[in-house]
Amino acid sequence: MPKVSREYVQEKKNSILEAATAVCKVKPLYDITMRDIIKTSGVSQGGIYRYYSDLDEILIDVINQENANADYKHIIDEITVTSNFPTKTIIKLFSFLGEYMKENVSTVGKIQFELTILCANNPDRQKKILSNIVENESGQYLMQQIFHSIHKGISSGCFTPEISIEDLSTFMMTSIDGIVRDVFLQKCYGMFSNDQVQFDVIRLMNTLCKSVLLLLGTKEKED
User: Fold this and answer.
1) Distance CA 164, CA 11 (A)
2) Alpha-carbon distance 136 to 156, whole Å?
3) Which of 43, 66, 168, 173 has the least CB density, counted as fewest CB within 10 Å?
4) pTM score of the predicted model
């Protein structure tokens, strides 16, 4: 086989990943097969195996690529730098989270949700996939900044919490997880349609934010 350049190899891998990403958008991650990617990419089975040894290697690269594209730490930093008061910072961070979820629930959100199912049902594949995924940790960073603002507000006397910070943390995390789950299930799987309930993720995040601020012993300020 003649030698090929690194750029050529990367171009071919990118083509395969583009096809795999397209498949991920229309088929559950846990139900994707190598045949699906071969059919969508137009690359022969032998051609794909020149660049990837198995399906999981492709899925790992797809997930890492999506995670890299979903890095929003710089936006969080901009919000925290430009907000002068803890209350306003928290409002803006929750608002951003709602907007981000609305835009990405059917891409990054879908992949992350279905990855959990794939790993739960395939322990042998779980170890290989999870050990090779590079997390961007933007979600953790956002929560850290929310709690930094909470502690800042408590120290300055802006907040007088009605409950412990530990209970508030549990409330926020479980609420966010529930919102993400239900919005995803409705948008990507059509669930709850018979109930004629439309989950507006932005409005839900704003409601959660107001609840958090009330539990912190403050009211949302308009000025």
Assistant:
1) 53
2) 32
3) 173
4) 0.82
